[in-house]
């Protein structure tokens, strides 16, 4: 039995499951395996909130249709949670608590035995307070439980023909704000507009970091040389300003996923004796 078949078999043994489904490669692979292993006893659910970037919901719908799983949306209200708005180190804990409370309620109402996430083995080595929220709500992580790495996730997704197999990571818009900078509906909307502007310029992997009236653009290493051409840099700055920022600049250092977490990984980890989700 291949590793892919092992994960599918493990999901099939759950009986029925609801998948927390963003449309990214990780949750798409879990959803595809759930569809194969559970059939109509599997449901993919996408959370819609101001932190969801424009186009992500349409993308999720397309993936769900392609892999043959029923798809539904729910509304989440992270901005009603003080711990999320304050944007401390545990913002993701409060965000995922909101998500999993609503998914668990939906699963309970409709008779699904489990809620599944797309967390993989690589996630266990980064700052992931959202995993504590998952534990508190009994969420299962088939890929993480099987020791599947991000590289293997993409390989498996390609093997199954999952449309998002090579899709760049697209975390929630709140991840563009430095820790300690409050999350607001206006800030999320401004980030979204700026990133849409960069997509229109043809850039694929980047982030617009929100620093109040300053928008700092970080671009992947393979696309950065193009962005450093004077005319391109001017177009990027104009796109960010058009989104509502008074000032904009292109970072000379390439984008690196998880860079905002570097300064906090030395703090108390979720689940440690000194950690509390109510701290921030």
Overall description:
This protein has 280 residues and is an alpha/beta fold. It has two domains: 3-160, 3-Layer(aba) Sandwich (Rossmann fold); 173-256, Alpha-Beta Plaits, CATH 3.30.70. The chain has helices at residues 3-12, 25-38, 56-67, 82-86, 91-110, 130-136, 142-145, 150-160, 185-200, 224-227, 230-242, and strands at residues 17-20, 42-48, 70-75, 114-116, 206-211, 214-219, 247-250. Strand 1 (17-20), helix 2 (25-38) and strand 2 form a beta-alpha-beta unit. Helix 9 packs antiparallel against helix 11. The longest helix is centred in the middle third of the chain and has 20 residues, at 91-110. It is globular, with a radius of gyration of 19 Å.
Would you spell out the secondary-structure blueprint of this structure?
Blueprint: H1 3-12, E1 17-20, H2 25-38, E2 42-48, H3 56-67, E3 70-75, H4 82-86, H5 91-110, E4 114-116, H6 130-136, H7 142-145, H8 150-160, H9 185-200, E5 206-211, E6 214-219, H10 224-227, H11 230-242, E7 247-250
Parallel strand pairs: 1-2, 1-4, 2-3, 6-7
Antiparallel strand pairs: 5-6
| Count of distinct structural domains | 2
Q: What is the element string, with H for helices and E for strands? A: HEHEHEHHEHHHHEEHHE
**What is the CATH superfamily of the largest domain?**
HUPs
- The helix/strand class is alpha/beta
Largest beta sheet, briefly?
A: 4 strands, parallel
CATH topology of the largest domain: the name is Rossmann fold
CATH-derived architecture of the largest domain: 3-Layer(aba) Sandwich
């Amino acid at each position: 039995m291949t590793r892919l078949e092992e994960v599918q078999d493990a999901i099939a043994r759950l009986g029925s499951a609801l998948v927390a489904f963003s449309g990214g490669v990780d949750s798409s692979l879990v959803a595809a395996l759930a569809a194969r292993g559970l059939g109509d006893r599997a449901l993919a659910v996408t959370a819609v909130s101001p932190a969801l970037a424009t186009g992500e919901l349409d993308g999720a719908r397309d993936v769900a249709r392609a892999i043959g799983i029923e798809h539904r949306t729910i509304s989440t209200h992270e901005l009603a949670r003080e711990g999320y708005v304050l944007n401390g180190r545990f913002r993701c804990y409060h965000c995922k608590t909101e998500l999993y409370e609503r998914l668990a309620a939906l699963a309970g109402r409709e008779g699904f035995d489990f809620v599944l996430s797309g967390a993989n083995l690589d996630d266990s080595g980064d700052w992931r307070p959202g995993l504590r929220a998952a534990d508190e709500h009994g969420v299962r992580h088939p890929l993480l439980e099987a020791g599947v790495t991000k590289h293997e996730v993409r390989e498996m997704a390609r093997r199954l023909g999952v449309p998002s197999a090579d899709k760049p990571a697209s975390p929630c818009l709140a991840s563009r704000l430095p820790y300690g900078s409050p999350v607001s509906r206006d800030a999320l909307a401004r980030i979204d507009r700026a990133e849409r502007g960069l997509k229109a310029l043809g850039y694929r992997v980047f982030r617009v970091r929100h620093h109040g009236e300053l928008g700092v653009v970080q671009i992947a290493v393979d696309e950065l040389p193009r962005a450093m051409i004077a005319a391109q840099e001017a177009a990027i700055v104009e796109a960010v300003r058009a989104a509502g920022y008074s000032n904009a600049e292109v970072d000379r250092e390439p984008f690196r996923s998880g860079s905002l977490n570097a300064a906090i990984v030395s703090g108390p980890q979720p689940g440690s004796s000194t950690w509390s989700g109510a701290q921030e």
